[in-house]
Amino acid sequence: MSPPALISSANPVPPRHIGIIMDGNGRWAAAKGLPRLEGHRRGAERLIEIIDACIDGGIGTLTVFAFSAENWKRPLEEVSGLFKLGEWILRAHLARLEKRNVRLRVIGDISALPEFVRVPLEDVIKSTQDNTAFTLVVALNYGARQEIVAAAQAIATDVAAGKLAPAAVDWSAVEARLQTAGMPDPDLIIRTSGEFRLSNFLLLQSAYAEIVFASVFWPDFDKAQLQLALAEYAKRERRFGQTREQIQTSDQA
Ligand code: FPP
User: Fold this and answer.
1) Residue 16 carries which DSSP code?
2) pLDDT averaged over 10-residue windows placed end to end, the chain, 253 residues
3) Would you list the domain boundaries of the chain?
4) C-alpha 75 to ligand 1 mean position (Å)
5) 17-143+186-234 CATH, one of 3.40.1180.10, 3.30.70.100, 1.20.120.530, 3.40.50.11930
6) For ligand 1, atom 13: residue with the closest CA
7) To 10 degrees, the CA torsion angle through 118, 121, 126, 131?
C-alpha cells in the first residue's frame, strides 16, 4: 500500500479522525469589504477542497463544525443564508461524494433545521450509509454540552427502567450514548482564525486530541495549510498518560 499523499515520512501514524472548527469566514469577508455570506460561500468552497485532501491523504473521518447550537443567535439573514449554502453544497457535490464512496453523518439536533435542508440531508445520510472509504461528519445545531446532557438523560432513563445498573455506568456506556457513537475519537482538532478555544465542539471526544490553531481565516485554509497542521501533529508525542519511555518501549514491541 502506498503512503497517504498528505503525510510526510516523518509522520508514520496519520490522524484517523480530524475535527475542524472552521472559524473566520466573517472576518475574512470584512477584511475584503465583502458581505459575511460571501465569506461563508468561500468557506464552503474551501471545505470541499479540504474534504478531497483528507480523502486523498488517507484520513478516515473528518468532522466539521458547520453550525453550532449557539449560532441561532446570529442575524436571521445570516442563519438562513448558511442553511441555503448547506443545501447548495449537498446538491452540487452529492454525486462527487457518492463517487468517492463517502458516508455523510450528522451530529447535532437537525430536527430544528428548515425542511428545505433537513429533508435532502436526511436523504443523503440514508443513501450514503453503506459507503466506506471516508466519513464526513457535519456538526449542525451541535453543542458538546447538549450532547453530554442528552447522553446523561439516556443513561438515567435506562437506569430508571432497570436496563442498566448504576455501577455499570462506565465510559463505554457514556460513549455509546454520544452522537459520535461508533466513530473513532478525533486525533487532531484544527481551529482556524487565530482563536484559541474549543467552543463547545467535541469536548469529551477530544480528551486526548492534539489541537492545532491556525492563524489564517477559514476561507484561506487551503491544502498547504492542512499540510502544515499535519506536520505540526506529526511532531507531537502522544503519550495518553504514559511516560515517554513506556511509549518508546511499546513502539518497539
Ligand atoms: C465561522 O466563521 C463559520 C461558521 C459559523 C459557518 C461555517 C460554515 C461553512 C464553512 C460553510 C458550510 C455551511 C454549511 C451550513 C454546511 P464566523 O462567521 O464565525 O467568522 P467570524 O468569527 O470571523 O465572524
Assistant:
1) S
2) 49 89 98 98 97 96 98 97 96 93 98 97 97 98 98 98 98 98 98 98 97 98 97 87 79 65
3) 17-143+186-234
4) 13
5) 3.40.1180.10
6) 86
7) -160
